[in-house]
Design goal:
Elements (H helix, E strand, L loop, with lengths): L7 E5 L3 H10 L4 E5 L10 E4 L2 E4 L10 H4 L2 H9 L4 E3 L4 E3 L11 E3 L1 H10 L3 E2 L6 E3 L4 E3 L2 E3 L1 E5 L6 E4 L2 E4 L3 E13 L6 E4 L6 E8 L3 E8 L8 H7 L10 E13 L2 H11 L4 E4 L4 H8 L4
Parallel strand pairs: 1-2, 1-12, 2-8, 6-16, 9-13, 12-20
Antiparallel strand pairs: 3-4, 5-7, 9-10, 10-11, 13-14, 15-18, 15-19, 17-18
């Protein structure tokens, strides 16, 4: 892709990768960002009494040797926007054959605050109409010189040079439970993808006043109440006396099948609408560097 300058650009979504793309492009272009939900997407954060915590379970981690060299580049770029990082103090476990060499826990709260303070073109609107052509793209009838979509998005139909393409995203709902604890002794787990019988991905995060647990609920237990989940959790059932607050939330993933996504990318190849890989952070960052 040629370097973009003096263009009117639109970005769909506010996952960390799309926000990094915004910061890169806004230096020499006019950039609108569309987000009809909360900033961060699957990486969003919440707040309890002025303390921020991750509402879901995501980490910036290399999954092969080639990706390892990008970790420090990611750290440096995120740091420029206020992102803080620490090394994990407890267990850090992936369901992967690869053992990462550089492991960090990233606090994205300042990164998002920086984005909100500097992005005066954030549009809280849902995209319902897309028409991609060889020299322009129309989003909800607004004309852009270049548009970027993430690899997961909630648009059912895209018109490509006046021919309709049915995207057919599948909705997948993930459920997460966050528990706020007063300072106490809890399992030493910074991140794991196999926490216990009730939660798969989970982590503990500690600050000066509280300890936050966030766990993704396994499919078989999604319909249970929060109190029931804690009661039957092998690792949490004896921690109830130290709980201050419990919050259960859901996130809707709009998943596009790989074959369908590959076909869509091919059809968009000669248009001004591009799909940005956003499914795995380090791989996505590597590909993002090619969009200069």
């Amino acid at each position: 892709m040629k370097r973009l300058e003096n263009k009117k650009i639109a970005i769909l979504g506010t996952s960390p990768i799309m926000i990094l793309l915004y910061f890169r492009l806004k230096k020499k272009n006019l950039v609108d960002v569309f987000e009809h939900s909360k900033i961060g997407g699957a990486w969003r954060i919440d707040k309890y009494k002025e303390k921020y915590y991750s509402a879901h379970n995501n980490v910036v981690v290399a999954l092969n040797d080639n990706e390892e060299k990008y970790i420090e580049l990611i750290n440096k770029e995120l740091a420029r926007f206020g992102c803080k990082k620490t090394k994990p103090k407890g267990m850090y476990q992936l369901l992967s054959d690869y053992i990462p060499k550089k492991k960090y826990i990233h606090d994205l709260s300042n990164f998002y605050l920086n984005f909100k303070e500097n992005c005066n073109s954030l549009k809280k609107k849902k995209i319902t109409s897309v028409n991609a052509c060889s020299d322009k793209v129309y989003l909800n009838n607004l004309k852009y010189d270049q548009v970027f979509f993430p690899s997961c998005f909630d648009v059912n139909k895209i018109s490509i040079n006046n021919l309709n393409f049915n995207v057919k995203p599948t909705k997948s709902i993930s459920s997460h439970l966050t528990i706020v604890y007063k300072k106490t002794k809890l399992p030493s787990i910074s991140y794991t993808e196999n926490f216990d019988n009730v939660f798969d991905r989970a982590h503990f995060r500690e600050n000066s006043r509280y300890i936050f647990f966030t766990g993704r609920i396994r499919r078989n237990y999604k319909k249970l109440q929060s109190s029931q989940l804690i009661k039957i959790s092998n690792l949490l059932q004896n921690t109830t006396k130290n709980i201050i607050k419990i919050k259960k939330n859901r996130y809707c993933h709009n998943i596009i099948k790989e074959d369908n996504l590959r076909d869509l990318k091919l059809r968009l190849n000669q248009t001004k609408l591009s799909i940005v890989e956003t499914k795995q952070f380090v791989k996505s960052y590597k590909l993002l560097n090619k969009l200069k």
